[in-house]
Amino acid sequence: MDMTSSQTNAARQHPHIPLDELRAQVAACRRCPLCEGRTQTVFGVGNPEARVLIVGEAPGKNEDLQGEPFVGAAGKYLNELLAVAGLARDEVFIANVLKCRPPSNRDPRPEEIQACTPFLREQTRTIDPEFIVTLGNFATKFILKTDVGITRLHGTLQKAGRFKVFPIFHPAAALYDGKKREALENDFATLGELLSAPDGRAATASSSS
To answer: Which residue, of 14, 59, 81, 99, has the fewest CB within 10 Å?
Structure first.
């Protein structure tokens, strides 16, 4: 059986789950201890048919309180960066690897990732984006299954399965390190070039794979 037939059969056996149904599953999730300390889950927000899926690490304090990813200062800056790429917030879908806030914003633990990432996997399958933009070291290493850090990978077009992956520094990094602001804005400008090119092939001459 060829690969196309295999993929078609797999899709029939595992149909896409509507985002509203996934959202309800996330809200009811008690798969790991993070559920005990959350104010609410942070499922994600945006266009359910977005061409660009933006993936961060985990909710912070403001996100936990409001139930929406990337709010506060980092969220405001993300909106500005999206504009650099010619995008509006409601045109993309924004999610995190984890749907609950880790205490004191610590790094996610392996067992938490294992429990939570099926939700991100299903979100990705349902939204079916062309590009996945990973924000920061953690999301980038997780999506690309690599040990190479964001400092080396940012601004280069990568692949994860059939998805184009474009790693970028986390917007919060620029709030603490002004040197990263220029890199962030340059990378979002490159993202805009990729989106406007046929098959997303512009600006890839200097990209690595």
So the answer is: 14
Query: How do residues 182-209 score in pLDDT, each as one tens digit?
Result: 999 999 999 999 999 876 454 443 444 3
Type of residue numbered 167: P
Strands lying side by side in the sheet with 45-46: 45-46, 93-96, 52-56, 131-135, 163-168, 158-160
176 or 70: which leads in pLDDT: 70
pTM > 0.85: yes or no: yes
Beta strands, E only, 74-145: 93-96, 131-135
Distance between CA atoms of residues 63 and 9, nearest Å: 38
Token duo for residue 202 = 């512009």
d(CA 144, CA 152): 13
In single-letter form, the type of residue at position 158 comes to Q
The CA distance from 202 to 189, in Å, is 12
What is d(CA 92, CA 52) in angstroms, rounded to the nearest whole number?
5
Tokens of 70: 């990337």
Higher pLDDT, 1 or 82: 82
Look up residue 38 and give its amino acid.
R
